[in-house]
Amino acid sequence: MPHFDEKDLFKEDGDFDVARPPERKHHPVLMLLCALVLGAGWGAWLMHQRAVSRRVAATAATAATAATAATAGAVAAAAPAPQADPVARPAPVPPAPAPETRRFYGVVYDLATRKPMSAAQVTFIVGLPGAGGPAASCATDMNGHYTCDLSAAADPVAVEVSSEGYHGQFEDLIPPLRDRSAAQRRAALDERDAYLEPARLLLMPSQEVVALDIVAVPKSWLPPQAQR
């Protein structure tokens, strides 16, 4: 007969031998793979978000550029186009030229209308009449103004103006012809006896900047024999 001990009746539940579940074992390789997968997914999501942000920024910049261009175009279209002076005005004084250089500047205008002549060719000729040659040439702007540089050693110097519909020129007078009446301007032309060859210039050796306004004569103001 089995021996029975009364102490067995007072054993606590925890004192009984109960089968315990096996402890879970962690696999480092599997955990590393999971971490890599999670990291790759997170990195891909970040790259996607950055790409979306860049696309949004690029779209916004393009829209802003287009809006700016449209605004600038509208302003340019609304702004009036620059207009030439109705009557020739004196040219602004330019800065001094480089050493050993003489700078000519001034305005070229129509003797009949007193309007500035744009795109007229101003040519400076060095040497005696008939034996000289062009040394410098420049074109007038919208207001008839020009600036042209020539060697300071050039002497003698003459100047002529070339433009469609004009025949000859001469140096403006003092006071300027643009401030005189049409009759006075015609009288000044008649005094020249149609002598409108390149205008000979009298220069001082110390002059670095020379103001020279030129009056161009339209063919309509010349007699037929002088237009040839």
Provide an overview of this structure.
- The protein is of the alpha+beta class and 228 residues long.
- 26% of the residues lie in helices and 23% in strands.
- It has 2 helices and 9 strands, in the order αββββββαβββ.
- The chain has helices spanning 28-78, 182-190; strands spanning 101-110, 121-126, 133-139, 145-151, 157-162, 166-171, 199-201, 209-211, 214-218.
- The strands form 2 sheets. Strands 1, 4, 6, 8 and 9 form a 5-stranded mixed β-sheet that branches. It has a 4-stranded antiparallel β-sheet with strand order 3-2-5-7, with no helix packed on it.
- It starts with 27 loop residues before the first helix and ends in a 10-residue tail after the last strand.
- The model has no long low-confidence stretch (mean pLDDT 80).
